[in-house]
Amino acid sequence: MDCVPSGEAQGEGQARPRQTRRDLPQFELEIDESLDLDPKIQEELIEFVGGLSRPYHEILGVAPDADTRAIKKAYFQKSKRFHPDRYFRKNLGEYEAVIDTCFKRLLEAYELLSDPATRAEVQKSETSSGSATGDGPSSGDAATGSSKTPRVSGAVAARRLRRRMSGLQGHKKIRQERKQKAKSFFESGIAAFRGERWLEAAGSVRLAIAFDPDNEVYREEFGKVQRKAHEMRAAQLQKQADAAMDLRDLGEAFSHLEEAFHYRPFDGELAFRAAQLAWQVVGDLHKAKDLASSACELEPENGAYHRVLGQIYKAAGLAANAKRELETAVRLKDKEAKAELRGL
Amino acid sequence: MGHVIGIDLGTTNSCVAVLENGQPSVIPNAGGYKTTPSMFAITQDGKRLVGHLAKRQAITNSKSTVYAAKRLIGRRFDSPEVQTAVSVSPYDIVEGPNEDARIEVSGKTFTCPEVAAFILREMKRVAEEYLGEPVQEAVITVPAYFNDAQRQCTKDAGKIAGLDVLRILNEPTAAALAYSFNRNEEEKIAIYDLGGGTFDISILEMSDGVVEVIATAGNTFLGGEDFDRRIVEHLLDEFQQAEGIDLRGDAMALQRLKDAAEKAKCDLSARESAEINLPFIASDDAGPRHLSVELSRDTLESLVHDIVEGTLKTIEDCMGDAGISPDQIDQVILVGGQTRTPLVQNRAAEYFGKRPHKGVNPDEVVAIGAAIQGETLTSEEENPLLLDVTPLSLGIATFGGHFARLIERNTTVPVCKSHVFTTTRDNQSAVKIRVLQGESETAAENDLLGEFVLGGIRPARKGEPEIDVSFDIDANGIVSVSARDTTTGKKQSITVNATGTLSDDEIQQIIEEQELYEVQLKE
Ligand SMILES: Nc1ncnc2c1ncn2[C@@H]1O[C@H](COP(=O)(O)OP(=O)(O)O)[C@@H](O)[C@H]1O
Ligand SMILES: [Mg+2]
User: Fold this and answer.
1) Which of A65, A127, B416, B440 could cross-link B472 (Cys pair, CB 3.0–4.6 Å)?
2) Class of domain B224-302 as given by CATH
3) A10 touches chain B (CB under 8 A)
4) Which one of 1.10.287.110, 1.10.10.60, 3.40.50.2300, 1.20.1250.20 gives the CATH number of domain A21-114?
5) Is the beta carbon of B71 within 6 A of some atom in ligand 1?
6) Among residues of chain B, what percentage have pLDDT more than 70?
7) Under an 8 A CB cutoff, do A210 and B310 touch?
8) Which CATH class is domain B4-221+319-388?
């Protein structure tokens, strides 16, 4: 059910007369005094829409060699006449579509002529297609539109790119300054890292990245520093947990272990220890289940982990799940699992 | 005919303005304030409060007080933005039936457009009291970088509030209109808009009574709230280190910290250091604990530096799109309360190489610009013409998960473009058109606006049928798409109905419900 742009499949530049017809709908217009639109403007619109197949510079009403400034000026002047907002929510009859068409064509003319590259393309195709004399809306314009529009659209993309590049040149100096700042943040980050001030190091390197987001080295280093910082924090928490265990403050121990697992999310044993405490000390079966499941995911071949997960399910009254886990535990040769399974 | 009001529906504060005898003025609310907090609450005894009243009781009723709901509007519940909001908001955010985010207050679930409508209704009422006549028509502003869904939802909100929304206008563009009002210079300007929850940058050119947006960029999930959050995190860490108590689970303490953080941040715009005093913030066996910290401007700057740098990076991209270098900008205009922070002002000044313009009020210009646009659209006079752009590229998903761009970002609207597509299998009888908005080459990384199926394609070999898809973006930035099989002439079209947008029936239902409620209040 997918759909592919035929432009890609068949190559850009295919003639598409349909597109042209859409771009330039035909109107049969008469002056209608009942409309909410000055008859003088109606006349003007009839004339303008009739001339939309003329070369783009004629649509804008500028000389073929007009400069960018003149083109923009003309575009602004004509927009003030033909922009739909000028006739907002008025009773316009058929003229509503006319105004829409006029403005869109005007915009197209401006976009294409305001860049030298697309403009050259336009002028080439306008002179070669022979319909550039502007003899009314009827004959010849289909050929003009179909051979021209697709080729120009490639050029529009190129123009955008060029415009981007020229805009970016003005940024060079600023870029340089920011890179410099990034570098100094990075250096203080590395110093902090050497001084084993891990969190500070991570913070500095993050700042370096903010100033110079494209620097791969910083990103890589940030990963390293952050891992290290997490590693240290986890170790610290585990130590605190052990100390709490010694003092029989099991609740405290649990919260340390739980947080430590956050920093060592790949450590199945940590999850397992936390799960047991969550279940037996804290009595939070939800947390216990989540932690034990994580432990099983991380070490699927550990029978004891599955057994404890089974026991937690059992405590929560989820017999089917408990059975599944305990059977897995038995298969993995966990000794206590058999007795548990019998007790189900 | 009545007045058209301009409403700046902000993340943090909203503001309403009107043009009287050709002069724009901001309308103060009953309390005399020119801006109204974008907050909504339901009290214990079921009363609905909006604005300052809602804000005043936020600390004691944080779970039923909704703020910054604009961060959620038009987004999918599972989007990272909504998930972040879920984790930091004291009120409940739940998933709605259209995969949208909804807000649960006192056991009742509200859609985001409904919550926005409470605020809009309040602004409408403020205007009506001031003008002494009913108001029907409004121009409502949105961040320039809002996508189609967010715009449609805002329009829905207007409808629910009983407003005829003449136009959804981009906030920075509105600011530019206000700045250029009665000013006949030929100049290029940059609007830097940093509010409570969104950031926009727009580059415009004005001359001869035309205001043309050249390029725009932004981040709809970045603002003053993020500054506050950094300060709160800092305070939490400090407190934990000093007292060994983690306040993260304590909703009341968090709300107090958030308020204090914001206040300190604002103080630091005028002073070098601010004091934060929160007595009885916690207690344990040893008795009550107090938080008392001195926050310096330097500390604040170190906490938020990377956020500000992020905005500069966005500006750089936008300037690149515009093809303009910083020294070509004649005026820099700062909009939004968060631009009062000196670091923001200094970095913007450094980037553009000039001090920002001082003549506009950052809290009021957007509403004034909206009022001007309302007048421009409805009056017969020769008014400035606005040429705005679409902030995001628009296209469809193609075979292999790619994104085919049909309208590039920063294209002037209204615009209509069409392209011919074809099938990928022999005798394929239907194609699915998935309409996307965004900048990624990968379809899945862009926002899905909607999808529809064009069936009844004449059996043919793959690649033969021609399906003409045309995209239309109107002056509100709202998208509609149609597809036509050129051989059969069969046509399908949608006004893209994205996440969280409501059907007309739903809107009607909500309006009736709210009217019911209004009657109840008067009893
Ligand atoms: N004096 C100030 N200094 C720094 N930040 C401020 C100041 N005044 C307001 N703010 C911040 O500005 C933001 C609100 O800006 P506003 O323009 O009203 O936002 P929005 O348009 O999103 O509603 C808040 O985050 C607020 O804390
Ligand atoms: Mg704002």
Assistant:
1) B416
2) alpha beta
3) yes
4) 1.10.287.110
5) no
6) 96
7) yes
8) alpha beta
